């Protein structure tokens, strides 16, 4: 058996982060966690591009445009969709999830899903640096892992 293990992500890797303004008290903490993790792992500050969008629904459009540039080793998507009194959150979550998966597959590009899909504000708080960790930081770790794994894979 031959196990392919990730190598260190190349020094010239660039990453993008698309983050939603909606629920900014949560999404800012996710962004802070992702940026801190990249810095801790040696990714230069100027190798990380951040694009703010109005809400989670707009994340796939900007992610698609960024993926089209072929500049990035990975794109993190950060948002917080919190259930309200209607099923609106269900449709947002489904559309965003499907769109981001399609972009990643079409581009053979890691598109990391850091869009919280929570029942309550408290659940979101706990996932943005609270007792459950910081999902933005986890996305950055996953992006680095995937960049290294893709670099280790044969191209043909």
UniProtKB/TrEMBL annotation:
(2S)-2-hydroxy-3-oxobutyl phosphate binds at residues 85-86, 127. It catalyses: (2S)-2-hydroxy-3-oxobutyl phosphate + 5-amino-6-(D-ribitylamino)uracil = 6,7-dimethyl-8-(1-D-ribityl)lumazine + phosphate + 2 H2O + H(+). Pfam families: DMRL_synthase (PF00885). Keywords: Riboflavin biosynthesis, Transferase. CDD domains: Lumazine_synthase-I (cd09209). Pathway: Cofactor biosynthesis; riboflavin biosynthesis; riboflavin from 2-hydroxy-3-oxobutyl phosphate and 5-amino-6-(D-ribitylamino)uracil: step 1/2. InterPro entries: LS, LS/RS, LS/RS_sf. SUPFAM superfamilies: Lumazine synthase. Its EC number is 2.5.1.78. One of its GO terms (molecular function) is 6,7-dimethyl-8-ribityllumazine synthase activity. 5-amino-6-(D-ribitylamino)uracil binds at residues 22, 56-58, 80-82, 113. It is an enzyme of class 2 (transferase). One of its GO terms (biological process) is riboflavin biosynthetic process. The active site is at residue 88. NCBIfam families: lumazine-synth. Catalyzes the formation of 6,7-dimethyl-8-ribityllumazine by condensation of 5-amino-6-(D-ribitylamino)uracil with 3,4-dihydroxy-2-butanone 4-phosphate. This is the penultimate step in the biosynthesis of riboflavin. PANTHER family: 6,7-DIMETHYL-8-RIBITYLLUMAZINE SYNTHASE, 6,7-DIMETHYL-8-RIBITYLLUMAZINE SYNTHASE DMRL SYNTHASE LUMAZINE SYNTHASE. Belongs to the DMRL synthase family. This is 6,7-dimethyl-8-ribityllumazine synthase. The lineage of its organism: Bacteria, Pseudomonadati, Planctomycetota, Planctomycetia, Pirellulales. The gene is ribH.
